[in-house]
Amino acid sequence: MEYEDILRRWDIIPIRLLGKSDLGCVYLTYTLDKQIIAVKMFKQGTYDRKQLEAADITKTDLNSIFLLRYLQYNDESIYPILCMEFANMKTLDIVAKQPHIPLPTSTLRALMRQILEGISVFHAAGMIHRDIKCENILLHSPPDSGRVYVKISDFGQSRKIDMISELTQIAGTPLYKAPELFQIPVRQTQKIDIYSIGVTFYLLIAHQYPVVQPNLDEYQKSIKQMKCIERPSEIKDDVLWDLLSKLLEFDPDKRITADQALRHPYFTSPQSQSDVSKEQQDLASQAFIAELQFMKNVPEYEKEPTFIVPESLQIDIILVNLIRNVEKTPNNCNKAKQLGIIDLILNILSTIPPKRVNFLFVKVMALFINLDSVLKNNNQLQQQFIKLMNKFLDPEVQQILINQLLFVYEIVTTFGNSSELELPHPFREQMQNEGQLNKLIEIFQYNQYQDKYINYYAACIVGHLFKATPLPSEFGPGIVNMIKDYSKLPNLFYSHVKHQIFSDLSENINNHQILLENNTLKLVNDFLLINDNLPDYNNSAIILLCNLFQIKKDIGEEKELEQEQEQEIQTKQGKESINKCEQESESNISQGEDQDEDEQFALALKLSQELQENNGDGQQ
Questions:
Q1: CA 607 to CA 620: how far, in whole Å?
Q2: Residue 451 among the catalytic residues
Q3: Which stretches of 417-511 are DSSP H helices?
Q4: Fold of 329-493
Q5: Catalytic residue among 131, 154, 193, 316
Q6: pLDDT of residue 589
Q7: I want to staple 31 with a disulfide (CB 3.0 to 4.6 A). Which of 35, 295, 364, 498 is the partner?
Q8: What's a single GO MF annotation on this record (predicted)?
Q9: What is the pTM of this model?
Q10: What homologous superfamily does CATH list for 3-85?
């Protein structure tokens, strides 16, 4: 019997399949009492009765909007079913794995607060989740609410604290596992959930795991050798890092609880209370007004701005899905053009203020341009983007400026990739004439920014703009050295950026000397040896090496050819001079037979000297 037939027998109407695995499947469904719910169906023998008991606890004992609500289950059928709330957005994983989504600090804080609030309720009921990770935290935006809520889900490994002693298996996803799970005796307490939440938050900010290893054995070995998690360069806020370090504390006895984390200054300080967006403030005000008008109790999480994740996050996720679909099936680019998506995004970029521009709009356009040669070579489109960059280059507000520099960087690199080898960047001359290039150089050279990434991204943009063009000595060395310094950071992204920019610069031999300083060749070779399994990052390094070798080789061959041609010309001229001298010599000797011997000797000596000089020129 098909899954869908079984659902209909239970008066559940299947709408579409949401996911499928070896253990079963999940359907989006419609019930007779007009509810849209998700139904998980297990294959016989693939579930543990205790999973359903845990689900039962979440259904009856826990009351939190931040926990996915289980509605009912039935295990009498061949295929047991579990009915649950439907979360209409993706999981937190889509945000964590996309470095293109720079979360505003106010949105990040609200997401973290919601997750901690949910796990606090879960722990207060005497439960341990045992598999907290980004993939198990769903996102839901109730229609017309303007809000997004997290939903901690997948309680398949969850247990009551008093049941833990019966367990022999250690649950969890390796890169999220707490250090005490690798010790003997193993300690499974609620603190393992706290550590996993710390990893989740780390991923949201740095877009990489705090400990990266290819398998469980290597991860276990690294964890045993470490004493603590090192602070990544992406986390600049000292208060935020203090919170994360307490969540990621290796000693479970010293690791804070969810309740203690919610009382941390990152959530309670005056600075955090004032860090709210207009969207958050407006939604909170609406909740207060509703409470006064209708005389009903409105939950704190709807009235408190720092709890509110605005619906704009949903736009991010929609755009990321668009990017993924186009990357997976490039033909979707044509569909997007036909549907008017490209024109719509261009109109949005042109009309809204720079501070409200979503970076993903630019990322989507960059993807379309890279996949479509007609768009890439469209002069009108290029002019539109050059005009847009004037809006983005406003150095007044640092937090906004760094985002806008990311927009400019994406545009410049996208169109720079379209120009052929040894041809200059198509934007450079116009940007120089219209003043944008000078603006970028001023931003790079300004040393009063607290956030030095502003200077770095300005340097990267200038580096790309000088593709196949000599870097001026006034600022060129500074640009190159800053890019080299940032490439020493542990994140491979910065090495990748260095190789991309240097490959552009290396298309002009006048830049080779400064590029090759400080063991550049050795560093590039070492990078290739260490990261031989990362083709996306390796390609730019290989192109750089090829440019350094081939362009120098081509110019060397041209010089050799010029020298050979010059030598042939000089040899020919030398031979002509010798012939002329010999003719003059014969003529003068015949005419001067009646001259005395002294005059003839002087003439012969002069001719001999001229011959020697001409022979010397020919050899040179």
A1: 20
A2: no
A3: 428-434, 436-445, 453-465, 476-486, 492-505
A4: Leucine-rich Repeat Variant (1.25.10)
A5: 131
A6: 46
A7: 35
A8: ATP binding
A9: 0.65
A10: Phosphorylase Kinase; domain 1 (3.30.200.20)
